[in-house]
Specification:
By secondary structure, the chain is α+β, with helices and mostly antiparallel strands. The protein folds into 2 domains: about 55 residues; about 160 residues, PEBP-like (Phosphatidylethanolamine-binding Protein), CATH 3.90.280.10. It contains 5 helices and 8 strands, in the order H-H-E-H-E-E-E-E-H-E-E-H-E. The strands form 2 sheets. The protein has a 6-stranded mixed sheet with strand order 2-8-7-4-5-6. A two-stranded antiparallel ribbon has the order 1-3. Strand 4 and strand 5 form a beta hairpin. It starts with 9 loop residues before the first helix and ends with a strand.
Length: about 240
C-alpha cells in the first residue's frame, strides 16, 4: 500500500516550530524545556564520546601513512639539493676510497656518479667530514630515492654523532636504523644518497622513521630542519 506523503512548505515548518517553542515557554511547561536541554546535552556528549576517538584514530592513521598535515607545505620552502650539489665542497668522504672514490673533480664539479656493484658495499662504510664542528651533534641519513613504489627506502640512520668523531672518520652516534646495503632488483641501477645535517634537537623525533616509504622532508621538519640545511652529502649508484 502506498502512503501519500503530505507536502509541507518552508513556512509551514517555521510556523510549527514556533508553536512548539511557544508551548515550551508556558509556565507549566518550563520543566519540559529544561529536560529537553539536558537530553540534548547528554545526547551530544554520548555522540562526542564515540566520534572523537574515531576521528583521532583516523587522523593518526593518515599522519602515519602520509605525514603531518602541511609537512613540506610551508615550513620548508626548498626541496632537496640538485644532483650537482650533492658533491663539490660539501662532499662527505665515504671510505674505503678504492670502493667509493669521489663524486667531484678538482674543480668541485660533478664528474658523473660512480657505479659500484652491490657486493662491494654490503658492509657499513666509514664516513668522514673534516669540516664538522667539534662540539656539534649531527644526523646521518642514507636513502635510495629510486625504489619505485617503495620510495623512499631508508638504508641507514644515525643520530647523536659528535662532530669530533666525524672529523676522525668515526660514526659513534646512535644507530636508529641499521645499515642495510644496496639491493637494486634485476638489472636496475639505483642511486644511494648520504645527507649530513646538524642536529637541532637533543631528542630526535623518530615517529616517521621506517625502512620502506620513508619520507625525508616530513622527518626533517619534525626535527626543525629542511632539505637545504644539509651540510654535506654524497651519492653513488649501485647494481646487482
Amino acid at each position: 500500500m502506498r502512503v501519500k506523503m503530505q507536502q509541507f512548505t518552508v513556512q509551514d515548518c517555521k510556523e510549527a516550530l514556533q508553536d512548539v517553542l511557544n508551548a515550551f515557554r508556558l509556565p507549566e511547561n518550563a520543566h519540559r524545556l529544561n529536560e529537553a536541554k539536558d537530553t540534548a546535552g547528554n545526547d551530544m556528549l554520548r555522540m562526542m564520546q564515540i566520534v572523537f576517538p574515531l576521528a583521532t584514530q583516523i587522523q593518526m592513521e593518515v599522519i602515519e601513512k602520509y605525514g603531518f598535515p602541511g609537512d613540506g607545505d610551508g615550513f620548508c620552502t626548498h626541496d632537496l639539493p640538485e644532483p650537482d650539489l650533492l658533491c663539490g665542497e660539501t662532499s662527505l668522504e665515504i671510505k674505503p676510497d678504492d670502493v667509493y672514490g669521489t663524486c667531484n673533480n678538482e674543480e668541485g664539479k660533478l664528474q658523473g656518479i660512480r657505479e659500484i656493484p652491490k657486493w662491494k658495499v654490503t658492509d657499513r662504510p666509514q664516513v668522514k667530514f673534516q669540516n664538522a664542528k667539534k662540539d656539534q651533534m649531527y644526523i646521518l641519513i642514507m636513502r635510495d630515492p629510486d625504489a619505485g613504489s617503495a620510495r623512499d627506502v631508508l638504508h641507514w640512520l644515525v643520530t647523536d654523532i659528535k662532530g669530533s668523531s666525524l672529523q676522525a672518520g668515526k660514526i659513534d652516534g646512535t644507530e636508529q636504523m641499521k645499515y642495510n646495503g644496496p639491493n637494486p632488483p634485476g638489472d636496475q641501477h639505483h642511486r644511494y644518497q648520504f645527507f649530513l645535517y646538524e642536529q637541532k634537537r637533543s631528542n630526535v623525533d623518530l615517529s616517521l622513521v621506517k625502512r620502506i616509504h620513508f619520507k625525508l622532508v616530513p622527518f626533517l621538519e619534525r626535527n626543525e630542519l629542511c632539505p637545504n640545511d644539509v651540510v654535506a652529502s654524497f651519492q653513488y649508484k649501485s647494481f646487482s
